[in-house]
Amino acid sequence: MRSPRHVRRTALAALSAGVLLAVAGCGGGGDRTAKGTTGTAEAKDVLLQPLASPGPGPFTASTALTAASPSPTGGPDADPTSATRTVHRVSGAVPGLYGGTRSVAACDVEQQASLLAGDEDKARAFAGASGIEAVQIPGYLKSLTPVVLRADAQVTNHGYSAGSATAFQAVLQAGTAVLVDSRGMPRVRCACGNPLAPPVVADGEVAHRGERWPGYDPARVLAVEPGVKAATSLIIVNTEDNTWIERAMGDSGGRDRTPDDPPPFEPDADLLFPSPGRPTESAPPDTAPTGPAPSEPQEPTDPGAPEPSDDTPPEEPWEYEEGDPDVAPEPTQVFPAEPDGPPEPEAPAAPDEPMEAGLDDVFAG
Length: 365
Prior knowledge:
- By secondary structure, this protein is α/β, with parallel strands linked by helices.
- The protein has 9 helices and 14 strands.
- It has a 14-stranded mixed sheet.
- The longest helix is centred in the N-terminal third of the chain and has 13 residues, at 4-16.
C-alpha cells in the first residue's frame, strides 16, 4: 500500500472543503408501481430498496455476507410518502461514509465474478452499464472494495431485462453491502449483482415507491459523488465496536489495520447530517452587541471637567449650554491678552472696531 498518510490527508481535505450540499424536493403521487420503475432513469420515480430486497431484474443471486434486513413498514405498492425530501451530496472520500467488520468482507467478490461469467448475456449487459468490456469483469470486480453503506443513499440502479440493463433511480437502505471504486463510488449492489451509477436527483415532486424500512427519512438521503482523486485505501467504521478501520482498495478485509492517523472526530459523529444550525442562529445576536460599540466614544465626554482645555474647542459650546451661563464670559477674559501682545498704533483711532474683530477671532479659534 502506497503512501496511506497522504491518502488520509486527501480524504480529510475533501471533508473540510465542504462536501456537504443539499437539493430539496417534495414527495408526490404517481401512477407507476415499483415494477414500473424498471427501464427508466427518470428521477421523478424513486424505488426504495431494503437491505436484502433484490429488487426488479436482479443480475445475479445475492453475494452479500451481511446480516438479514429488518422488517419493512409497507408493501411494494404502498402510497408514496409526502414528506419533504432532501438529498445531501457528499464525497466518497469522506472517512466514515462506509462501514464493515474488521477482516471480514461485506460481499463475496469471487462468487460475484463467477455468477456473471456463467451468463454471457448478463455479463455483456453488466459490462455495458459499467463502462467496461465483458472480458474485464473479473479484474474490474477485484479492483472494487466490499463495504456497507452507513446512511440511506440514492443511486442509479440497473436491472436486467431482455438482454440489456435498464436504469432506474433507487434509494438503498443503510447497511446495504456494496462494492466501491477507488473514488468511493458505489458500483455494484451485492444483494442482486446490479451495476450502480451516480444518482440523478430531481427537483420538485418525486414518487417514492417500494418498501419503507423503520427509520427511513426522506430528508436524510445521500448522493455520493466521486472523490477528488483516486485513493489507495478507505477509512471505514467497524460496525462491531465503533472503531476506525483502514481498508486497502480492492481488498476484502485481509489487510485491514488501524489507521496511523485516524480522523479528528469520533466514528459515530453525525458528519453527513449536521444538527440544525443553532450556532449560526446565535451568531447574529453576537454581532448585535457590537453595533452599540460606536457609542463608546461618548465615554470621553464623561470627563467634561478637564475639557475646558483648548484641545477640544468644538465640544465646549455643548458644555456651556448644559453648564452654568457664568462660563461664557471666560472668552472675554482672553480678549484683553491679545491686544496687549501686539501693541498697534491704530487701536486709539477706532477702539470699537478692533474689539469686534478680536471677538470674532477668539470664537473662530
